[in-house]
Fold this protein.
Amino acid sequence: MIVLYLLLAAVVVGLIGSAACLRVVRQFERGVVFRFGRVLPTIREPGLALLVPFADRLQKVNMQIITMPVPAQDGITRDNVTVRVDAVVYFSVIDPVRAGVDVQDYVSAIGQVAQTSLRSIIGKSDLDDLLSNRERLNQGMELMIDSPALDWGVHIERVEIKDVALPETMKRSMSRQAEAERERRARIITADGELQASEKLGQAAEVMSHHPAALQLRLLQTVVEVAAEKNSTLVLPFPVELLRFLERSTPPETTKSTGGGVPETTETTADNAVPALTTRAQGAAVSRSPKEAGSAQPQWGGLPTGCADPAWQP
């Protein structure tokens, strides 16, 4: 019976010892063994790792790419604009021994370096670079973080600036600037269109001057376009040259008789001279006083009164 108890005790001790000297390393991990406090140069690969009981201690290091957000940092750009910028850093361990021995907590160390590098990038950059030229800033920040990280056995895979928060006053100023820029471009485009239209109209005028029938055809086409809109009023342009031609070709008025009195005559010269003043006689028996004769209004014939000589006095 005592022998059986001894065998059971040996089995239990063996199981405990086996559990103490066997470890499982997963595929994305690497094992660093410390024997009596000294690190062994051999790295335990994924699988079952055998350790010396009570002498070895296994530290597992994650080899996956770690995504670490960088808290938003307040800073002043080189052109004196206050901004708030946050970023994200992607890194992985390339040397498990150095990552486990040379630095106490490599994740926290990378986070602190990323924050200081982000503030440095903000102070060295202009606002326009932060908004439009982020690729260059990402590369510069990656180099700044990767320099100390290589000594810790960590490689920086990628750095991205996520967002740039601006003050409300700066947002309004940029909105007004963008609106003014769009207005400027709109005016330039409009002026360019007017210039091209004037050039084409000048060419059309030259063609119409050589071919007068083209002007008449264009006039008829305009009338057709206006009439197609079902308008109740049709506006027909009348050339001034035609009015002048009719004025020159109108014959002078003939002598008109008002009865048995003195005939009323109208004299018109070729160069639109002043028409003669005419009087109407009501009969030989009708007499007028000098006052009445002075108040008699002259009668004009021929051209309108506006064409009379202003030097004439009745």
About this structure: Residues 168-210 form the longest helix (43 residues). Confidence is low (pLDDT under 50) at residues 255-314. The radius of gyration is 53 Å.
